[in-house]
User: Fold this.
Amino acid sequence: MSAALPSPSFDRNEVRARFALDYVRDRHRRLIAGEEVIVHCHHYNSRIQRTVEGAAGIDGKAIFRTAARTAFLRQITAGFRDGDDETARWAVAEELFAELGYGSLDLADPASDTVHQSAGHFVEGWGVAFADQSKPVCTLAEGFIEAAFMAVRGESVEVRETHCMHCGASQCSFSIRRGVEAWTAPSRPARRESVSTSADAELADSNIDDNAIIQAVVGLPIRGGDDGLIPAFGVYLANTPADFYNQVAIEFVEAMSESGQRETACRLLSEAGESCAMNTFRGIMDSAEWEALVAPMLQEPADTLFALVALSNAFGWGNWRITEHEPGETLEIVSFNGYEALGFLESRGQATQAQCWMLQGVSAGMMALVYGEGSFSERFGTYLTEEHDCIAKGNTMCAFAVEES
Amino acid sequence: MTRRERVYSCIHADTYKYFLPREIVLDTWKRLESKYGRAVTSPGFGVVEIRTPALLLRSTRMLNPITVIRRRACSTEGVASLHQLLRFEVNDHPLPRTHP
Assistant:
């Protein structure tokens, strides 16, 4: 083991300021250090991870880890400034991890063979959602640390979690293996943006003041606290690069397709979205934030749907709006710039099938949450979504039709 | 008597909203601030919150009910101490407001 780097001579608040949120109002995009980030909570993130890593016959952990290191290499590097020494650069990586809400990493001793994490977003997510405590769950952190070594030192390392708080350890530990095969991150394809806007569709009316909700969310400091976690709306939130989610979903479907399981893969991704809607939005609807600002606007059950859509737009999911709604029966939603569709278009070109698995699942899940009865398991699958138009197929907007199954 | 109601899909499985008798609300918040630190009101939503490593205590500007979210550092003793401040006795079997 080598000695830790000298004490930092820089201001950590100044480092955090490099990751200030830039919210693009007309497109409902959240940008941090140049990357589009999506706000999701521990329910969705742990479920999408379990979906990918739990699938038989593919290396889901590798998909998750590689997507993380690719997305975070760009974002960490974007946080560097001229004049930063190595100590400052490690601090940038540490602070980005915390700022985004993933927890608290200690990168102060990069010469060591071990890195520790004292709090983790995925630790919390798995702890609530799943009883199985047999396996470490911080795969995203593995990819993040690999990206940090590449960004700071240009060094390829292999990072594996050896002890995890989810399994009962007092802190998470990651082994650092040096001298591994060099890796390079592919350059990012040119960013695409949708050609349509809210003005191109006839939107349904509601009693919800979208702008008030969006302004309130955007005004919230959705950034990690002292422990690098973001407790808000009764859940733990995290800011995750859209490119990460897209790479995970696309490579998961491709890997499953190789064994003839494409349809299963797509259904699983959609189910993760449906579960997200029911759990995340259930948590949000029970939160003090909801009670304070949204609940006074609600006059009928349908208003809840409109409020949830407004919230998700503020979370950076893009610009999606309800166009028609028959309470309890049907729902028509359009998305003008869904990150899943644009991400597919950017990395794979035009698709022959719709690609917005998360939004498909969320659309059905919102209906089940608002109008369904019984336990979540009883409501699951009671509504189905068809995405009949998708930007990834060449349409000008994505369009979703939800009805009872 | 303070009563409570379970909240699902939250950070911790044992999350509850505590409904205080109106006459003790202000005094209770004073005692909570004295023990756990100053309450902060968030911009936009106006959520009043006391945040500690073990607990999140949250409410609207009405200050009642108080949602108590337990965090990783929360202990049984810590919950018992909080219940004293909230004047809550654990002899209830809270019915879920909604199904999980």
Remarks:
- DSSP finds two helices and six strands in chain B.
- The mean pLDDT of chain B is 90.
- Chain B has one domain: 3-86.
